[in-house]
Amino acid sequence: SLYVSEYFSQSAQKLSFYSWYGNAKLFHFHVPEDTVLLRWLLQASRGKGPECTSMEITVHFRHGAPPVINPLGTRFPANATVRPSYNISITLSSAVQNTTFVNVTTPAAGDWFIAAHLPEAAGRIEVKGFSTPCPYMFQADMFVLRLTDMPVLEPGVPMPHTVVSPAKPLHVKVFVPKHAAGMRFQLSSCITSEQRACTVRVLLGSITLPQSFQRVLTCTGSINCSLVLESPPWEKWLQIMVESLGSANASVSVEMLASFTVCRPGSTSSFLNFISLNQSQAGGRPGAAGSSAPAAGEAPHNTSSQRSSCLQSQPVVREDLDVVSVRYRLLNGPSVPVNSLSPTLLLLNLNTGMDSGGSLVLNLLLNKTSVSLANATVVACVSAASPVLSLNATRHCSTAFSQGYPLSVSTASAEAMLIVLYPQTDDWFLSLQLLCPKGQGECSTAEAKVTVFSYLTPCFNDCGPYGQCSLLRRHGYLYAGCSCKAGWGGWSCTDDTKAQSVGTQNLATLLLTLSNLMFLPAIAVAVYRYYLVEASVYTYTMFFSTFYHACDQPGVAVMCIMDYDTLQYCDFLGSVVSIWVTILCMARVKKILKYVLFILGTLLIAMSLQLDRRGVWNMMGPCLFALVIMITAWVHHGAKRKHCYPSSWKRWVFYLLPGITLAFIAISVYAFMETNENYYYTHSIWHVLVACSVAFLLPPRDKHKKPWAWSQKLTCRYQICQNDREELYAVT
């Protein structure tokens, strides 16, 4: 046999602490057919700075779809199917880099996904530039060993083969046709080269993670041994590996035989009507949309035809709505007939390769008037790759290599719902059958009507009122995740364990908005001291900070007067410009120079905020430059007057020192104390402290200016005005 090794690599990604699915870094690989060995090379590394500590990285694996993970231990939505992912942990302790290998023998062909993340996020809000986070990098590479000339086992034809040695197992494959109800594998004439009874182990199927249903058959001696597989995967290659358990130097000769039991579907009359209907709607064009329906239609209602077929297939139209958004529509109406003689089958096509990043939602509703037997139950099974063709009370909803999802409806409980999170890429089948408690003979003539609603959505229920559905991308692959707010959690933001009450949400909104009213004293002081430009800036800041925080709330207490991004930009701009004009006002420079610096600084601040809105130097840069100007001006004034400036000790004790203290406390709260949990009151304290510090730091008015004399400036009475007209003399 000829083996070919192939290598696939993807660029490294910077890991994040986990708070929602968007923090997990996804890697998407495609394993080719006839792969007999898959090896993952996982490389993790961290920075060398003092901020880098020991860290545990969790890596999840899944075949067919992104792994469904739950690192935070939150609740999933009701009726959602959750199967734990296969994961390993990689620890970065004293070593800067860690290399780990993961081997998978006879892996399933198709899409494989790896998701990696750091532990739960601490929830601290870090200001960009104040702290340097440690970079943790992760890279996944894939090695595959593929057999180029894997022998094909033809159904019904015995095929002799030889296992050379235990170190070199034999690999063969057989193609499973459509409508295969069962497969029988038989191994016979097993004998070693030493003419002794042999012992071999046969592995049927491929390994899939997180769960693998690979079937094992051990044969000892020359007697025939066989294995029956019910509902093997349709239209797929099935790998078979034969291993010798004998001595190392002895070869083993075996003879293998595979045979299939084919299930004959019902009448195709509805399918032919479906084709003609689509061709008439599309103007007779071949290959029109919807013409890929299953090649079996609704069964006729006569009992003889139902007895002669083992399934009744209903044509389903796949309607693509948007990215990871599909609606399935039954051609013969939303209701399907279900009887006890053979299962009713619906095909849900999810094999485009771009459907596994959403949620498959299935609703069943029983028409109670359609069932003549009160105790009858309609059982259903949703499975991938192949349908379950025999539904009864004792048989589990499982196929040859996978476990399906069972459902049931009855007159007592007429509605059932199923949510499959990140369904694997494949053909999905819905099987329905009517069961009676006293046996199938009791309801041989009965028929139930079940309404089926099925669709694929990026996020179930659009993440609810306390979540936001985000479309994520890894290269060309798109998938969706929910980002929760207001303390809600879970896959679809349905876990209210840590949720904020409506009262808490209202309190947070009131604190963050009304705390901006503390700028009113600063505005009043500025107006009283004739600093009208500064007062205008403070008014601008108070207005936009109030309505930005009213729009920024995560819960239901939200009010947006304009676009969120515009409000955020205006809030950040007003905050930095307020600090800029306050420090320049304290510098006591000439008016013409002060106003030039006001305008020039505001333009530069607006430009820097557009480049990086959350950078710490967008605030610290103007502040430090304004402080340099202020200190230079104060030194100049002190040298000119031959004493300290400002000269009054009362100015220092009662105004400057309290204002500077409040400003430092505000910066400390803003930079080091804010978290996601305490944001609404720590940020409100920041508003109060900054506004109060501005009121203390504004310098007194110029001595030559008199206080506002409203009674002299705004009058409603007659006044005797002095006549300053000059006398004109005529020269004669």
TrEMBL record:
<feature type="domain" description="EGF-like">
    <location>
        <begin position="455"/>
        <end position="494"/>
    </location>
</feature>
<dbReference type="Pfam" id="PF12036">
    <property type="entry name" value="DUF3522"/>
</dbReference>
<feature type="compositionally biased region" description="Low complexity">
    <location>
        <begin position="283"/>
        <end position="300"/>
    </location>
</feature>
<dbReference type="InterPro" id="IPR000742">
    <property type="entry name" value="EGF"/>
</dbReference>
<feature type="transmembrane region" description="Helical">
    <location>
        <begin position="617"/>
        <end position="636"/>
    </location>
</feature>
<feature type="compositionally biased region" description="Polar residues">
    <location>
        <begin position="301"/>
        <end position="313"/>
    </location>
</feature>
<feature type="region of interest" description="Disordered">
    <location>
        <begin position="283"/>
        <end position="313"/>
    </location>
</feature>
<keyword id="KW-0472">Membrane</keyword>
<keyword id="KW-1015">Disulfide bond</keyword>
<keyword id="KW-1003">Cell membrane</keyword>
<feature type="disulfide bond">
    <location>
        <begin position="459"/>
        <end position="469"/>
    </location>
</feature>
<keyword id="KW-1133">Transmembrane helix</keyword>
<feature type="disulfide bond">
    <location>
        <begin position="484"/>
        <end position="493"/>
    </location>
</feature>
<dbReference type="InterPro" id="IPR021910">
    <property type="entry name" value="NGX6/PGAP6/MYMK"/>
</dbReference>
<keyword id="KW-0245">EGF-like domain</keyword>
<keyword id="KW-0812">Transmembrane</keyword>
<protein>
    <submittedName>
        <fullName>TMM8A factor</fullName>
    </submittedName>
</protein>
<dbReference type="GO" id="GO:0005886">
    <property type="term" value="C:plasma membrane"/>
</dbReference>
<feature type="transmembrane region" description="Helical">
    <location>
        <begin position="592"/>
        <end position="611"/>
    </location>
</feature>
<comment type="similarity">
    <text>Belongs to the TMEM8 family.</text>
</comment>
<feature type="transmembrane region" description="Helical">
    <location>
        <begin position="652"/>
        <end position="673"/>
    </location>
</feature>
<feature type="transmembrane region" description="Helical">
    <location>
        <begin position="679"/>
        <end position="698"/>
    </location>
</feature>
<feature type="transmembrane region" description="Helical">
    <location>
        <begin position="507"/>
        <end position="531"/>
    </location>
</feature>
